[in-house]
């Protein structure tokens, strides 16, 4: 009988692998988050739902408990479970330090229960194959071990705020972001180097992580059995994960990402011949391994995180047979002992979220402006322009944002989140006007609800309370009911809005709801505001080939939706910024809604010819018939509906994004005397220059 504590990302794997063990039964789940607990129970059809380990044990009497909660809770929860005489499997990192780990093992030994941590990659088939070669002596004596772990900092663990203005928990660990991931590359390395006699850590910073944290770590280990080098990389791409073990007879390389094992034995051939055989032998191994993996995946003999399944089943075997656990006490403790030393050497300064106030300089304008979303594509360029125009500017920035460019130009930085009313209120003190550009752009419902809708509610309430002179709200042309329009229809500010916002996706739905809130506040006189509806914003640093265009295959080929005659609703970023500034400055803009679209238009073929082809001259361009794509999307909808899965793309969204219409900017031109500052040819040249400068 099994209990699972923690219903986060890893719980699905643990639950599925536990269920696949003969005779296993998951008798209960434990989590303080009632919503997460209920969702996990429904998903896996587990009836026993509890808020504490004590309740789980008293009511269900599990033989083993899995601890899958954030690392800071591991020690207390593990101690409680052991004291209730439960065998225990604890996710990595086992504990936060060596001292806590020793205490848990001592307690487990006194209570007579089995205790094990999750070093799952050591049990992956590709790693097990290499380990078997070493144990058989085919590598000879192991001389050196290289363990490389590349991490993508855009994954939710690094970027998702658990609540508005609250950092992800990985930043709060003693070893900061390194702590949760360090065990993986370390436990495979230490298995062959032995216990370190000496550890040396070197770091570099390339501005990938916040707060000037080192994003490249090189850890040199002088082990009792061999040398070791561990590379922990956040900056290098692609994000690789491999182990190379060098012996006196052979070198073996294990790629954890591709689940392949490559060997290079000592050769008796002449060096000239080895140059050919080395590559051919490696190619043959990669080819056969790839086909073998594909076959095993298709036959369900190999699964993602296969090593975790092997480890869990071996742990259950150890309980049944009263045998040794798959990860021994010694293996677990040496990892934590080494991590303690690594974190002693890695200097991570604490976060400081005090406001950043530049030296006071005379300003041309007395009016002080707050920009929300000021670290984004539009916001950053707007802040630059406002400062250049002579406005004192304050930016409300989320805690993980890169604010260095804004600091350099002299903007004030206040840390917070529009969805966190307290931090937004602090940032509003002494402000005259607000440009509200913050929004959830991930397409995730939670992100859109908080950043777009709740953020706008908070902004409106505080603007009313503090009698802000003017609010500029950055909306979107996605609020229009494009699917209802006729071909070649002219879209003005009075055109009908989307009748089915949710069909357009969470981003569009939340933008329409937020705009409605601003519009209502304008009508009732609660705030003086301007609503701007920009088209597709483009410019240096922006996305050049958007989903509206089609999709790209690694810059080698571009598949364009339709025949290329679709008119792109573009607004160049500097032209949008100019419209925002004019809206701030002109009383004629008050309580008005404006489309912001460039006057010069180009279609998809022209864009591909003038922008994409000059940047990717060798790339192939294909125009995919809209009707054919529509049919493919229809079939995909039907197939996934049968599988009770959400479609990747719907016909409604496809039709809405490809409707041949033309957005009208006459009201903006007429009312604010707005004229695009940057013409089409100049805009293209600026984008090309920027992209080429990155090479």
Name the descriptors.
695 residues, Dihydrodipicolinate Reductase, domain 2, seven-stranded parallel beta sheet, 23 helices, alpha/beta, Rossmann fold
Radius of gyration: 29 Å
Distance between the termini: 58 Å
CATH fold naming of one domain: Dihydrodipicolinate Reductase, domain 2
Given this structure, which CATH class of one domain is correct? Answer: Alpha Beta
**Annotation field: number of helices:** 23
State the fourth-level CATH superfamily of one domain.
Dihydrodipicolinate Reductase, domain 2
- Overall residue-averaged pLDDT value: 95
Shape: globular
CATH architecture classification name of one domain:
2-Layer Sandwich
Describe the protein's architecture and organization.
The strands form 6 sheets. The chain has a 7-stranded mixed sheet. Strands 16-15-14-17-18-20-25 form a 7-stranded parallel sheet, with helices on both faces. α1 crosses α11 (306-321), α5 (98-111) runs antiparallel to α12 and α20 (626-642) packs antiparallel against α21. The protein is built from 23 helices and 27 strands. Among the domains are: 2-117, NAD(P)-binding Rossmann-like Domain (Rossmann fold); 122-345, Dihydrodipicolinate Reductase, domain 2, CATH 3.30.360. The chain is of the alpha/beta class and 695 residues long. The radius of gyration is 29 Å and the shape is globular. The chain is 40% helix and 19% strand.
């Amino acid at each position: 009988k099994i209990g699972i504590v923690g219903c986060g990302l890893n719980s699905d794997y643990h639950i599925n692998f536990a269920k696949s063990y003969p005779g296993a039964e998951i008798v209960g789940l434990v989590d303080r988050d009632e919503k997460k607990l209920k969702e996990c129970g429904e998903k896996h059809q587990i009836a026993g739902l509890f808020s504490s380990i004590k309740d789980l044990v008293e009511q269900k009497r599990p033989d083993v408990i899995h601890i899958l909660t954030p690392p800071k809770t591991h020690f207390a929860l593990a101690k409680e479970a052991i004291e209730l005489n439960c065998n225990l499997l604890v996710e990595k990192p086992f504990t936060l330090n060596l001292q806590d780990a020793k205490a848990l093992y001592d307690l487990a030994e006194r209570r007579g229960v089995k205790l094990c941590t999750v070093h799952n990659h050591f049990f992956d088939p590709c790693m097990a194959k290499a380990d078997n070669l070493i144990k058989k002596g085919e590598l000879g004596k192991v001389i050196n071990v290289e363990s490389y772990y590349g991490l993508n900092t855009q994954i939710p663990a690094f970027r998702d705020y658990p609540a508005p203005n609250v950092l992800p928990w990985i930043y709060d660990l003693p070893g900061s972001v390194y702590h949760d991931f360090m065990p993986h590359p370390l436990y495979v390395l230490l298995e062959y180097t032995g216990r370190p006699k000496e550890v040396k850590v070197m770091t570099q910073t390339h501005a990938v992580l916040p707060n000037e944290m080192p994003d490249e770590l090189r850890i040199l280990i002088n082990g009792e059995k061999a040398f070791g080098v561990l590379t922990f990389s956040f900056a290098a791409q692609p994000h690789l994960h491999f182990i190379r073990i060098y012996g006196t007879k052979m070198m073996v390389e294990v790629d954890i990402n591709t689940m392949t094992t490559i060997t290079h034995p000592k050769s008796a051939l002449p060096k000239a011949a080895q140059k050919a055989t080395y590559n051919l032998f490696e190619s043959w191994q990669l080819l056969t391994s790839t086909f073998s993996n594909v076959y095993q995946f298709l036959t369900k003999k190999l699964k993602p995180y296969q090593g975790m399944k092997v480890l869990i089943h071996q742990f259950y075997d150890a309980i049944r047979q009263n045998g040794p656990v798959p990860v021994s006490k010694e293996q677990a403790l040496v990892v934590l002992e080494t991590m303690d030393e690594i974190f002693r050497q890695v200097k991570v300064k604490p976060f400081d979220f005090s406001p950043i106030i530049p030296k006071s300089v005379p300003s041309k304008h007395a009016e002080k402006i707050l920009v929300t979303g000021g670290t984004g594509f539009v916001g950053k360029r707007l802040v630059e322009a406002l400062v250049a125009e002579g406005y004192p500017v304050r930016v409300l920035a989320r805690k993980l944002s890169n604010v260095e460019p804004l600091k350099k130009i002299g903007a004030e930085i206040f840390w917070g989140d529009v969805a966190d009313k307290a931090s937004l209120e602090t940032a509003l003190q002494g402000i005259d006007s607000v440009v509200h550009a913050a929004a959830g752009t991930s397409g995730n419902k939670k992100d859109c609800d908080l950043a777009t809708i709740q953020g706008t509610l908070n902004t409106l309430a505080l603007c009313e309370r503090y009698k802000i002179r003017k609010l500029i709200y950055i909306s979107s042309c996605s609020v229009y009911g494009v699917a209802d329009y006729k071909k070649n229809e002219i879209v003005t500010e009075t055109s009908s809005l989307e009748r089915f916002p949710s069909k357009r996706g969470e981003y569009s739905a939340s933008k329409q709801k937020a705009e409605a809130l601003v519009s209502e506040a304008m009508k009732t006189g609660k705030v003086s505001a301007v609503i701007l509806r920009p088209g597709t914003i483009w410019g240096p640093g922006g996305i050049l080939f958007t989903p509206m265009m089609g999709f790209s295959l690694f810059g080698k080929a571009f598949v364009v939706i339709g025949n290329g005659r679709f008119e792109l609703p573009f607004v160049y970023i500097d032209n949008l910024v100019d419209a925002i500034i004019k809206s701030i400055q002109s009383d004629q803009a008050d309580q008005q809604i404006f489309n912001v679209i460039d006057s010069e238009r180009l279609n998809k073929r022209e864009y591909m010819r003038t922008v994409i082809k000059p940047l990717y001259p060798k790339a192939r361009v294909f125009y995919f018939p809209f009707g054919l794509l529509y049919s493919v999307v229809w079939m995909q909808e039907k197939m996934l509906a049968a599988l009770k899965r959400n479609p990747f793309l719907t016909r409604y969204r496809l039709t809405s994004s490809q409707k041949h219409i033309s957005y009208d900017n006459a009201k903006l031109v007429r009312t604010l005397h707005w004229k695009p500052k940057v013409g089409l040819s100049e805009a293209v040249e600026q984008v090309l220059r920027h992209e080429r400068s990155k090479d």
